Amino acid sequence: MRIRIPYVATLCLFLGFSVNGWSQCSICTKTAQQLGEGPASGMNGGIIYLAFVPLLIIGIIAYKWYRNQKA
Description:
Keywords: Membrane, Transmembrane, Transmembrane helix. The chain is an all-alpha fold and about 70 residues long. It has one domain. Helix content is about 80%, strand content about 0%. The chain has three helices and no strands. Helix 2 runs antiparallel to helix 3.
C-alpha cells in the first residue's frame, strides 16, 4: 500500500495542474467569448480552482475515513 501512495499523489498533481481543459458551462463560455482571450483564460482558471477546492476537501475526508477504517 505504501508503494501506491506516491503514484496516487503524482497522478493528483498532474491532474491538478493540467488546466488545458475548458470547464465552463454554456453561459460562461458565451461570456468568455465576449471578453476576449486573456480574460477568458483567467475565468477558466478560476472555475477550475473553485471546482478543485471542494474535491480536495472530499479527498481529505475520504482519506481520513479510510485510514480510520483500516486501523
